[in-house]
Design brief:
The chain is mostly helical. Helix content is about 60%, strand content about 5%. It has a two-stranded antiparallel ribbon.
Length: about 220
C-alpha cells in the first residue's frame, strides 16, 4: 500500500518515468517493450473476505477512485489513504527530503530480512519484539497462523477457504463482534463441558495452543 501510494503521487505530479516505473514494478509485472502490465498484479490474497478482495483489486488498478475509498471501512483502503496522506504532508513540510525518501526505496537501500523460526513461540517472541511500537496481532490472527501451520499441505487451502467464509459471516453479523470474541466464547464453552470450575480465566492463546497443562483443554482437541 505504501508503494501504491507513492506510485499514485508520482503519476499525479508527472514525475520521471524511472520513478513511476520503479514503484510500479513492485505492484505490477513489467515488460521492457510493453512497460507496466496492469493486468498482471503481484499482490494477491486467497484468504481475505470477498469485500476486502474487491477493495484490494480496486486499489491495484491503474486508476483509483479516491472518494469511494474514503467511504470504505476496509483496512486496505485505510492503510492506502494513511500512506497517501503522509506522503502529501511530507511533500509540503519536508520538500527537500521527499526525493531522497523516494530514492531510498528505488536505490535498493531498503532490505527485507527473512527470519526462520524453530517454533511458534519463537516466532511470536520475535514478532512482538520487532512490533513493540506497532499494533499487536489479535488472538484470532495468532490462532489462524497456528492452525494453518499445523494443517497438512493438502488441507491448507481448504482451511483458508473456511476461515475466509467465517470472516465473511462475522462481517455481516450483528451479534458476533469479532473472531477474538468467538474464540473467547468457545473457550468458555469447552471449559464448561469439561467441567472446569477454576475462577481464573486462562489466556485464549495458551488455552488453544499449549498442551503442557491439562487445563488448556482446547489445545488437546482436534
Amino acid at each position: 500500500m505504501l508503494f501504491r501510494a507513492f506510485y499514485e503521487w508520482l503519476k499525479k505530479e508527472g514525475a520521471k518515468e524511472d520513478y513511476i516505473n520503479g514503484f510500479g514494478k513492485c505492484i505490477w509485472e513489467y515488460d521492457l517493450d510493453e512497460g507496466l502490465e496492469f493486468s498482471k498484479i503481484r499482490l494477491i490474497s486467497k484468504v481475505i473476505t470477498d469485500s476486502n478482495n474487491a477493495i484490494l483489486r480496486a486499489l491495484l488498478q491503474p486508476s483509483i477512485d479516491m472518494e469511494s475509498l474514503k467511504k470504505s471501512n476496509s483496512k486496505y483502503a485505510k492503510n492506502f489513504l494513511f500512506f497517501y496522506s503522509k506522503i502529501e504532508n511530507m511533500k509540503i513540510d519536508a520538500t527537500m527530503q521527499y526525493e531522497k525518501f523516494c530514492k531510498m526505496f528505488l536505490a535498493k537501500r531498503l532490505f527485507i530480512l527473512l527470519v526462520v523460526c524453530d517454533s511458534q513461540e519463537s516466532a511470536m517472541t520475535i514478532f512482538n519484539t520487532l512490533n513493540s511500537r506497532g499494533k499487536p496481532l489479535s488472538n484470532a490472527d495468532i490462532l489462524k497462523g497456528y492452525i494453518y501451520k499445523n494443517k497438512k499441505d493438502s488441507q491448507k487451502q481448504e482451511f483458508a477457504n473456511e476461515w475466509k467464509e467465517l470472516e465473511t459471516k462475522i462481517e455481516s453479523s450483528n451479534r458476533v463482534k469479532s473472531l477474538d470474541f468467538l474464540f473467547l466464547q468457545y473457550m468458555h464453552i469447552i471449559r464448561a463441558q469439561e467441567p472446569d470450575f477454576d475462577t481464573t480465566t486462562p489466556s485464549v492463546i495458551n488455552f488453544f495452543t499449549k498442551k503442557d497443562k491439562k487445563v488448556n483443554y482446547g489445545a488437546h482437541k482436534d
